[in-house]
Design brief:
Layout: E1 4-12, E2 23-24, E3 29-34, E4 37-42, E5 47-52, E6 60-65, E7 71-76, E8 82-87, E9 94-95, E10 109-114, E11 120-125, E12 131-136, E13 141-147, E14 155-161, E15 164-172, E16 175-182, E17 185-191, E18 199-205, E19 208-213, E20 217-222, E21 225-234, E22 240-245, E23 259-265, E24 268-273, E25 288-293, E26 299-304, E27 309-313, E28 330-331, E29 341-346, E30 352-357, E31 361-366, E32 371-377, E33 382-387, E34 393-398, E35 402-407, E36 412-418, E37 425-428, E38 434-439, E39 442-447, E40 453-458, E41 464-469, E42 475-480, E43 484-489, E44 495-500, E45 506-511, E46 518-522, E47 525-530, E48 533-539, E49 545-550, E50 556-561, E51 566-570, E52 579-582, E53 589-594, E54 600-605, E55 610-617, H1 639-736
Antiparallel strand pairs: 1-55, 2-3, 3-4, 4-5, 6-7, 7-8, 8-9, 10-11, 11-12, 12-13, 14-15, 15-16, 16-17, 18-19, 19-20, 20-21, 21-22, 23-24, 25-26, 26-27, 27-28, 29-30, 30-31, 31-32, 33-34, 34-35, 35-36, 37-38, 38-39, 39-40, 41-42, 42-43, 43-44, 45-46, 46-47, 47-48, 49-50, 50-51, 51-52, 53-54, ...
């Protein structure tokens, strides 16, 4: 086995067309399908945990999370469909034994749901069987099966009554049925007449079921019958109005904005409609397919048909803003590509990777910080991309022209245009002084300083699929669908060697790490070529090879296949099978690249995902690189932008000075006002003090006068008493005598 392999580290992208493709694991972690695996993404620390599917899976079809948030069920399409339950409490998502439909041949389960106590699982298979299967999943036991519909119209959702483990609901186009598990069988307890109604989603609210239709009707079912109806209507500004309808129409109704997703929670329910307005921008025209809510009901998250994830706070201050279209929504992770990624390139002096896509966007990612640094949408589809070694310029091949653009602080701006239509491959030389661009079966070589076309290389009879440069940029290698591999001298434009195998359609080519041999992949084989001779051949197990990347250390090469698998093959190429196979992508691998320091393998696919994988040895440790990597932080700013920003800074400075002057003036006014008020209060208090002092003086005088009067009265009384005593004494003395 190969001693070096790739280990998925971080992935950008969401797989669409997966039922219930977004759910909360906890307050900060969401789970969603990406590539050929499920990702548990922690939004707080930008960390991802990967849950891998089965080896022969043909893709994920549906997800379901248990009410206790401990288990994740993953439905995978294959010859015999399986549902795998993963234990999320385990660090690596421990896999339980897969659930199947028993002896019935089922190719896929379209939707699933856990029971309220998380012990049972219900799964709905696709047509033509349309079998509903109930499992006691912990014991891997099928409890009951029933055919949910006899029509060819699809079932869109199944669910349990949140208050009853034995009652469940099935809805779809012309279908709304309630089943009850009783005596070992699923028995239909009610059926509603909805043959002409296309029900897209439903949700239990208490004992009632709210169902949304493709015409914007919200039907309320109780005991299996339609009791009420709420009609949705969209205004020209994108706002949605809801009205209760007294008369219930069981026909299809008029065309309006469809209700695409429903979710009930403790305070009511949340629903989304597909936008139908000419006044909305492309971001607002996305259709919401899944709604989920965090366990504490503090955050609402949605996934859209364009593979984007958004979240909104449900705090009291923000809940009213939910009605204002998308103003309160923000990206849950990063804005992803919404279509197949066609180009991939890295540079030397910055930790950047560039991608382009059929969604007409070019994006610049930082593989160290795991963030999207720049992106711009264009009017034309982009087929190829190449980053300059400095990370300051980028080549992009569009359907109409090849454009050389500057990577500015906050924009991607065209510097030079070349009249090459539908350029499917372009590449900068290692020194950055030249670049090659492919147009059909012709290779054009330009100088980067004067943009002069110095060489036109013609030899291929079929479309050229890939080109690569030698270390000193003196040689260029190319491969094509005609089975030819040519080595060119970039000084003279002459062919130095060639190898033609007409039975093979080559897809990618590169020099070996020592630049002595040429490695190429095509059809179902890897070839090593030197001096027009094939030295070694390594056949693929299955599927055609689509991409190639050679490590700078020379220890391993990586190949991508049409099925989304990545092979790490030991180098020098082995005689026997010595490689490690992984299937992280859900579509053909279009491009591969290894970072300059040999630490990361970057891959892109038809599934619209960019995967960053660590290159590790057999012990899981990163490779030691002999290359000294110094990442620069310089950026490009045009003179006009700089002047504009300087003018803006000047305006801000003037505005700041005006604000400071205004604040100082207001402070002076307030100071004067406060001083005046203080003076008035001081005068008032002084008067009061003087008044109190005068009152005190008067009171003191009165007290002294009163004391004098009291003292005078006391003296007079004493004299009078003394006289009376003397008179009595004289009287008694006279009487005695």
């Amino acid at each position: 086995m190969a001693s070096v392999r790739s280990q998925p580290h971080f992935i950008f992208g969401v797989r669409t067309r997966v039922t219930n493709n977004l759910c909360f694991v906890d307050e900060q972690t969401v789970a969603y399908p990406s590539g050929n695996c499920c990702v548990c993404h922690n939004t707080a620390v930008q960390h991802q945990r990967f849950i891998y599917g089965s080896d022969k899976s043909q893709g994920i079809r549906a997800l379901a999370i248990s009410p206790n948030r401990c288990y994740l069920a993953v439905s995978e399409r294959s010859e015999k469909a399986t549902i795998t339950v993963f234990d999320l409490q385990h660090e690596r998502g421990r896999r339980r034994k897969p659930l199947t439909a028993g002896d019935m041949l089922v190719s896929e389960f379209l939707c699933m749901a856990f029971s309220p106590d998380s012990k049972y699982l219900i799964g709905q298979s696709g047509g033509p069987e349309w079998t509903l299967v109930l499992w006691f999943w912990e014991k891997n036991k099928v409890l009951a099966t029933v055919k949910s519909t006899s029509f060819n119209d699809p079932i869109t959702q199944v669910s349990f009554n949140p208050h009853n483990n034995m009652q469940l609901c099935v809805s779809g186009s012309g279908v709304f049925k309630v089943f009850r598990y009783h005596e070992g069988a699923l028995k239909q307890s009610s059926i509603a007449k909805v043959e002409s109604i296309n029900i897209l989603c439903h949700a239990w609210v208490s004992e009632k079921v709210f169902a949304g239709t493709d015409t914007g009707r919200l039907l309320v079912f109780e005991s299996g019958d339609v009791r009420r109806e709420l009609r949705m209507s969209s205004h020209s500004d994108g706002q949605v109005e809801m009205k209760w309808i007294k008369e219930i129409d069981v026909s299809g109704g008029l065309a309006a904005s469809g209700i695409t997703a429903l979710l009930s929670y403790s305070k009511g329910f949340v629903c989304s409609t597909d936008p139908r307005s000419n006044d909305l921008n492309p971001a607002e025209l996305q259709e919401i397919h899944t709604i989920c809510m965090s366990p504490a009901e503090e955050t609402l998250a949605v996934s859209t048909d364009r593979g984007q994830l958004y979240s909104a706070s449900l705090s009291s201050t923000d809940i009213s803003r939910l009605l204002e279209r998308h103003q309160c929504f923000k990206s849950l992770s990063q804005p992803f590509h919404s279509s197949a990624i066609t180009g991939l390139s890295t540079c030397i002096l910055k930790p950047l990777v560039a991608t382009c896509s059929l969604d007409r966007s070019v994006r610049i990612w930082n593989y160290e910080t795991k963030e999207l640094e720049l992106y711009r949408e264009f009017q034309e589809e982009a087929y190829s991309v190449a980053l300059h070694p400095t990370g300051l310029f980028i080549l992009v091949g569009f359907s109409d022209k090849l454009r050389l653009m500057n990577l500015l602080l906050d924009d991607i701006r065209t510097l030079k245009e070349f009249t090459l239509r539908s350029c499917r491959e372009c590449s900068f030389s290692h020194g950055g002084h030249m670049f090659a661009a492919v147009n059909g079966n012709i290779i054009y070589v330009y100088t980067f300083t004067t943009f002069e076309n110095t060489l036109t290389l013609k030899a291929h009879n079929g479309k050229v699929r890939s080109v690569g440069w030698s270390l000193d940029d003196s040689r260029l290698v190319s491969c094509g669908m005609d089975g030819a591999v040519y080595e060119w001298n970039t000084h003279t434009g002459k062919r130095e060697s060639e190898s033609v195998v007409k039975s093979c359609s080559y897809t990618d080519v590169a020099f070996s790490s020592d630049y002595k041999t040429i490695l190429t992949v095509g059809s179902d084989i890897v070839r090593e070529i030197q001096s027009c001779q094939v030295l070694r051949e390594v056949p693929a197990d299955e599927g055609s090879l689509t991409a190639l990347a050679v490590s700078h250390s020379g220890r391993v090469i990586f190949t991508g296949t049409s099925s989304g698998t990545i092979r790490a093959i030991k180098y020098p190429l082995p005689i026997q099978r010595e490689w490690v196979i992984q299937q992280p992508h859900g579509g053909p691998v279009n491009k591969m690249a290894i970072t300059y320091d040999d630490q990361f393998l970057l891959t892109v696919s038809e599934d619209g995902c960019l995967l960053i994988s660590k290159i590790v040895d057999k012990d899981g440790r990163g490779l030691k690189s002999n290359r000294q990597v110094v990442h620069t932080e310089e950026i490009l700013v045009t003179k006009a932008d700089l002047e504009e920003k300087a003018q803006h800074m000047l305006e801000l400075k003037m505005h700041l000075e005006e604000l400071q002057m205004e604040n100082e003036y207001q402070l002076r006014l307030k100071d004067m006002s406060h001083t005046e008020k203080f003076r008035e209060l001081m005068e008032k208090f002084t008067l009061e003090v003087e008044s109190l002092k005068a009152a005190k003086k008067i009171m003191k005088t009165k007290i002294e006068e009163q004391e004098y009067e009291n003292q005078k009265d006391s003296v007079e009384a004493a004299v009078k008493h003394s006289k009376q005593l003397q008179d009595l004494e004289q009287s008694y003395t006279s009487k005695l005598m």
